[in-house]
Structure formats: structure tokens, C-alpha cells
Design a protein that fits this description.
The structure is a homodimer. The first copy, chain A, contains 14 helices and 10 strands. By secondary structure, chain A is of the alpha/beta class. In chain A, the strands form 2 sheets. Chain A has a 6-stranded mixed β-sheet with strand order 1-2-10-7-8-9, sandwiched between helices. The longest helix of chain A is centred in the middle third of the chain and has 17 residues, at about 160-175.
Chain lengths: ~325, ~325
């Protein structure tokens, strides 16, 4: 994030108490999504998989948790000003939905490459879409313009402690449903979900390994953790339209502290995992949401014989684009 | 059914106690599937929809309940002989899976038009597939041959009280999860699921309306209930590959006693409902499984303002056939 859209200093990271408070705040609005299992996929993976179905969350993705927590945390004066965000899709829909529930307006800056189904969702919830280019610089520039024009409040998709705490509630619920879990894996893009997952998992101790999963074509989080420097300015190239952001100033240090490793997968592995989820679990999961399963299958040494929680992060996919998508897995 | 495959007189219909016994018998093996909701679909339907997700059942369909109850009811002598059935797909997979769990062999007589994914499932569970033509006469003829050759025990897909009682356990669970339900709707083909659903729904009283949902191109159940005569010998023409059977001698009188009405929908309505389930609920549901939602949307006068339980009967669909399928809904 550049200074124009994020003028305040990086806020303090949220703690486990913030995740608990978020769970209480969003409970009247969010679904407590089911945790599903599959014997077939367990056999394939050589471990016990517990799928937290955030594709079944309101708006079709975990993003509603963070957006709802942030927007229901706003004061009345902020609500009156309206909400602004930038999003490659799911966060935009979530902000639009949460804004409607709170009784305020949402403006969403979205790359022109955003899938139609995600743009339609934003508008169906009453949100206004402002297009931008796919680079982070363009996202930030247009977001700054919209903030200046509207006087709205920024609800950043990941570099916001309220958003991170909200995303962590998915893992909180997962650990309640499946208390024996000893590893959790979530996709990483800007790092909000993975940060929240880690804070929730480590809230009462450190005996759960937290992994990130990332497409090779958007491996900035992997490389940032390896190098110890937050990498910015790359252009992502992956089928995972939800995983093209880069780590934020707030999420990067949280991941450095909590995450054991970021596991990489290529797009063919992602699409194959997505197909398994559709065919064997009967769940519509978008490419980004299939990345953790792809990583478990591609890196079995980390998971053999363990009880693994997988965050199925979202299910918003253009059905008309499926033939092209599944064509990639041969 | 002709006499060759069904030599015994029609057995007595199962009662509510049989459904309760089936629930206990299959509990160690079957999933207690989730009941999911969608505000978007509620608004579209003008009623409160509670989706019983049998697409998330083992084997991808409710059929595992009935097959499991029947096969775990067999005596040791019968188990030693092996199991034979006829099926357009999901029942075959369910019988193969339940047979493997019980430690016996399954032979499945299946029409050549059966989707590849369903044939693959039968074989993946260790079942043997014997092909037949799509007519009921061909199914019965080949089934009789296989029974004679193998000495196996017939587990009929619907005209069997153990199978019907097993199918009823889905509605039993649904009514436990959502006790205020005042209408239940399930697809009808041979009538096993709908019979079991009705017996379960009416087990403790008659204040729940039970509806069937049937494609126009396979409307024998609708016409049979209207005319009071069980109609046989038609050739079905519908995208719903799971709904091409005709009512049995056992299921027909149960439906006459319990079912308020069979509601008809055309294939375009089915595919549109299926698309809604994929896009809005993120659930992979096969065409047959989308028929009840299509019926609720097409016949709103029966459901306005009510609490409606919908059995999402299965999710076994060839992903490679999707473009052709969704092309039908325009």
C-alpha cells in the first residue's frame, strides 16, 4: 500500500481476543459454515482432511467475515460517510453485502479482469463498482481518488486488523468442530485470511502448524517469507483470480511470526484439485479456494497421517468459463 | 417389474418404525448430511427453503441410505451369495459401496446411457457392471439373467421395503434439523425416495404436505396418480438421467396414500434450477436433484410463505458434459 490510500501508520496486529470479539460481532449475520469430510480425498492425501466450507459463506467466500466485522465496528459518523474498498472480487461483494446490512453505501475499486460473477455480486448487493487496472499501483491510485471524492471510510481487503480478526473466525469455528486438528492451511494473497487463521490457531497455544498455499504465478508471499523482505510490484500470472494481491505491511510480520511455510503449486495442480472438490465432494469451489488442497497433495511430507484443517475459501466462479478452466487440467 | 425379476408377491410397505430402525442401522456408515439455506433462493421462491444435501451423502446421492439399510439387513447366507441390482447409476454405486462395506460382491445391471461418472463410481467401489438397454423390459430381462447365473440376492432400487425405509431417513434427519417444516418435496422416479420421505414425514402425524417433483418427459408418476392406474412401458425423454424409471407395485400405493401432488417441470426449468444451486449455493447437484427446486419455483402457489424441505437427491454429474447441459438453459 502506498501512502495515498493508507495515510495512517500501520496499525497494531489483532490478537486472539479480537478474533473472539469478531466472532460475537458477526454471529447475527454470518453463516457458521459446515466442516465436511471425504474418505476418498483422505485416502488420496494420506491424511485426515477437515474442509471448512467458506464457499458456503454468505456472498460465497470467507471475505464476508472480515468485511462484516470491520463495517459493524464503524462508528455512526463513519457509517454516514460510506465505505470504500479495493478488491479483485470477493471482498468487494462482501463489503457491499455488509454495507447494506449496516445501512451504508459501498464503493468498490475492482480490476477490469475481475470475473463477471463477482462484479454482478457486488452490484446485486447495491455496491458501486469503479474499474481499475490489475497492478497494485493502479488499485491504490484509483482507491485514493475515490476516497478523496466520496469522503468515505477505507475498509482495506487485508491490511486492517478488524478484517484480519474477522477472517480468523473461520479457523475458530473449524477448531471447535474438529478439536484434534494439528495443521491448518489457507490460501495466501494479501495475507488477511492466513494472518487471521494463524492468530486463531495459535490463540491458546502453538501446537498447530499453520501453512499458507500460493500459486507459483503469484509467489510473492513465499519469496517474501524466504527473503525476509516484503516483495512488491510484481504482476501475478495465475488462474487464481482471488490470489493476485501482495502482502501488506500489517500482514507480512504476522505471517513471519506464525506461518511455518508457504507451499507453492502450479495452475494445473490447482485445477486438478478444484476438479476433485467438485467431483468427489460436490462442492463448487473457485480456483483460489482449491489451492490449499492442491498444496496438501503436492507436498505430502508435511501432512502424512495428520489431522489437517483446510479453508475452502470461496466458490465464486463463472460457470460459463468452466470448459476453458477444466481444459487446463487435461 | 415383471415376474422374472420379482418372483415374490409385493411385500408389505414399511412403516415409520422401519425408518427409525433404518436410521439406527445405517448410522455407523452414512453421513448425517447438512441442511443448508440460502436467503437469495428464499427471496426468489417466496418461501423458506431448507435443503437436505444428499449430494453430500456417501457415493454422492441419497441412494446409499436405502442400499446400506437393505444390505446390512441381509442374513449371512444371503451375504455369501452376493448382491444384484439394476440401476441407472446412483443406486448401483450405492449398492457397490454398501456391498464392499458389508464384505460381499455386487453386480449392477445398468443402461448403456448411464453417465460415465456413475459407471466409474460403481467400478471404483468394486462393483461389476452388466450393460442393458434403457427400457424397463431390458433392465428386467438382463437382471433376471444375472440373478439366475450368479444366484445372488436382488436389492431392487425402489420396490423393496428396506430400501424405502432407508431413503426415508433423509427426511427424518431433515425434520430433526428443521422442525418447523410444513412441506417436503422430493424427486420421483421409481418412487423409493418419495415413498420413504412420505412415511418419515407422516410418521408422527399428517400435518406435513408431501410433494413429488417429476420431469415432464418422464411423467408416468404424475399420470399414474391422476389416473389411479400404474402406468408402465413408456420411454422417458429427459435430461434427468436419474429419473427414468417407472413406479413399482410397492411404491405406487404408498404414493397414492401419502402424496398431495406430483408437480411437473420441463428440462429447461430443471437446468435453470440446477444452475441456481451451483451459482448461489455452491453445491454440485445433478439434474435429477434440481427437479424439486425447479418445481417449487414453477408452482409457487403450493409453497408461498411456507417452510419447505427440499431433498437435493444427488450430485453425480459428468463435468465434461456441462457445456452441453447448461447450453439448454440459454
Amino acid at each position: 500500500m502506498n501512502d495515498s490510500t493508507h495515510p495512517a501508520p500501520t496499525p497494531a496486529p489483532p490478537g486472539f481476543d479480537d478474533v473472539l470479539a469478531a466472532a460475537a460481532r458477526i454471529a447475527p449475520h454470518a453463516h457458521a459454515t459446515p466442516v465436511l469430510r471425504s474418505r476418498v480425498l483422505d485416502a488420496l492425501a494420506g491424511c485426515e482432511l477437515h474442509f471448512k466450507c467458506e464457499n458456503l459463506q454468505r456472498g460465497g467466500a470467507f471475505k464476508f467475515r472480515g468485511a462484516c466485522n470491520a463495517i459493524f465496528s464503524l462508528g455512526e459518523e463513519e457509517v454516514a460517510r460510506g465505505v470504500v474498498t479495493q478488491s479483485s472480487g470477493n471482498h468487494g461483494g462482501a463489503v457491499a453485502l455488509a454495507s447494506r446490512l449496516r445501512g451504508t453505501r459501498a464503493t468498490v475499486v475492482a480490476p477490469r479482469s475481475t470475473p463477471k460473477v463477482k462484479l454482478a455480486a457486488i452490484e446485486s448487493y447495491g455496491g458501486r463498482v469503479v474499474p481499475c487496472d490489475t497492478t497494485q499501483a493502479s488499485r491504490d491510485e484509483i482507491t485514493a481518488q475515490v476516497l478523496a471524492e466520496t469522503g468515505g471510510v477505507l475498509v482495506h481487503p487485508f491490511n486492517d486488523p478488524r478484517v484480519i480478526a474477522g477472517q480468523g473466525t473461520a479457523t475458530l469455528e473449524l477448531l471447535c468442530s474438529a478439536p484434534g486438528i494439528d495443521a491448518v492451511i489457507a490460501p495466501v494473497s494479501g495475507g488477511g485470511l492466513l494472518s487471521g487463521s494463524a492468530i486463531a490457531a495459535h490463540g491458546r497455544g502453538r501446537d498447530i502448524d499453520v501453512f499458507g498455499a500460493e500459486p507459483i504465478g503469484a509467489r510473492d508471499a513465499h519469496d517474501s517469507l524466504r527473503s525476509g523482505e516484503r516483495i512488491t510490484g510484481r504482476v501475478a500470472d495465475t488462474v487464481c483470480d482471488g490470489l493476485r494481491a501482495e502482502l501488506g505491511t500489517l500482514t507480512f510480520p504476522i505471517l513471519r511470526e506464525h506461518v511455518r511455510e508457504i507451499l507453492l503449486v502450479d495452475d494445473a495442480q490447482v485445477v486438478a484439485a478444484m476438479r476433485l472438490l467438485w467431483e468427489r465432494m460436490k462442492l463448487v469451489v473457485e480456483p483460489s479456494g482449491a489451492v490449499p488442497l492442491a498444496a496438501v497433495l503436492a507436498h505430502p511430507q508435511h501432512f502424512a497421517g495428520r489431522r489437517v484443517g483446510i479453508i475452502l475459501s470461496g466458490g465464486n466462479v463463472d460457470l460459463d468459463a468452466l470448459p476453458a478452466l477444466f481444459g487446463r487440467s487435461g
